[in-house]
Amino acid sequence: MARGLFVGITTLDVVYLAPHLPQANEKLSAIDSTLAAGGPATNASVAFSYLGNQAQLLSVLGNHPITQLITTDLEQFAIQHQDLQPDWQNTPPTSSIIVTQGSGDRAVISLNAVRCQAETTQIPDNILSHIDVVLFDGHQMPVSAVIAKQAYQNNLPIVVDGGSWKSGFEDVLSNAQYAICSANFYPPECYTQADVFNYLTQLGVPYIAITQGEKPILYQTPESNGEIQIPQISARDTLGAGDIFHGAFCHYILQQSFSEALTSASLIAAKACQSFGTRNWMNS
User: Fold this and answer.
1) Contact present, 137 and 83 (Cβ < 8 Å)
2) Which of 1, 32, 40, 266 is spaced 20 to 30 Å from 279 by Cα?
């Protein structure tokens, strides 16, 4: 059993399945709804755990009453959560999400981790003890930079979830072996995908991939570059697909080559897109 550390944000996701996005002043009845812990690192940890591993999640929850809903969900998937600010009393980050029936597209409004940034002094002792792979989603940047340096010194595989550029990401990426970026990930002075590949290469990241939704995954290694075709499906819900992809990648990269791990992870993400919510795919 592999052990993974996932560092980033944990949210409470309130998700609705609707026939369409509401117009101004429209009251819209949902077709379905679900409530779950969310956030890139959190969803990735759930996928990693589901695939037979032990996931450790490092984020801020605090002791607000709402956190009980989040911790209950995490416990169902045997996620070992360590709280960077256990005495924090404000509302944890929440997300309201509408998934459009038919297309599976999602609209998200949320508060990110800006209001609950932890200090590096709050990193637990021996956080990397018995860890086999580490993922950072960029939502706790100072903490992530310190842990990334430690993980690099310990020769641990470091995966960066590059959903969108965040200030300070260069300090984490400079220690990473794997950067898995979305098509919306543009570092400073980068305007094309070629720019992104060049920027990450100059930072010293050897293995880079850019996911493009239903389009092929672009990848680059020190030896080669290319495209990976992904399964063509009828998506019911794309919410969290990238997060689940990253969690599955952390599982497969411990067993397979870079391109093979990307391919295997894309199969898991495609499966997740065929069910409503970020959890139902594990029951089908």
Assistant:
1) no
2) 1
CB proximity list for 78: less than 8 A, separation 6 or greater: 49, 54, 55
Q: Strands (DSSP E) along the chain, which ranges?
A: 3-7, 11-18, 32-38, 54-59, 80-83, 94-100, 106-110, 133-136, 158-162, 178-181, 207-212, 215-220, 225-228
Per-position b or e across 8-18, b if 16+ CB within 10 A of its CB: bbbbbbebbbb
Amino acid at position 142, single letter: P
Task: To the nearest 10°, report the CA torsion of 131, 280, 43, 197.
Answer: 100
Phi-psi sector, 8: left (phi>0), alpha (psi -120 to 50), beta: left
> Which residues lie below 8 Å from residue 29, measured CB to CB, with a gap of 6+?
none
- Residue 139 one-letter amino acid: H
Domain layout of the chain by residue ranges = 3-283
Tokens 């949320």 belong to residue:
110
Cβ atoms of residues 90 and 111 within 8 Å: no
Q: Which residues of 65-80 are buried (b: 16+ CB within 10 A; e: fewer)?
A: eebeebeebbeebebe
Fold classification of 3-283 (topology level): UDP-N-acetylmuramoyl-L-alanine:D-glutamate ligase (3.40.1190)
Q: pTM for this one?
A: 0.94
Q: What are phi and psi of 214, to 5 degrees?
A: -80, -5
- pLDDT tens digits for 220-267? 999 999 999 999 888 887 778 899 999 999 999 999 999 999 999 999
CA dihedral (128, 166, 114, 242) positive or negative? negative
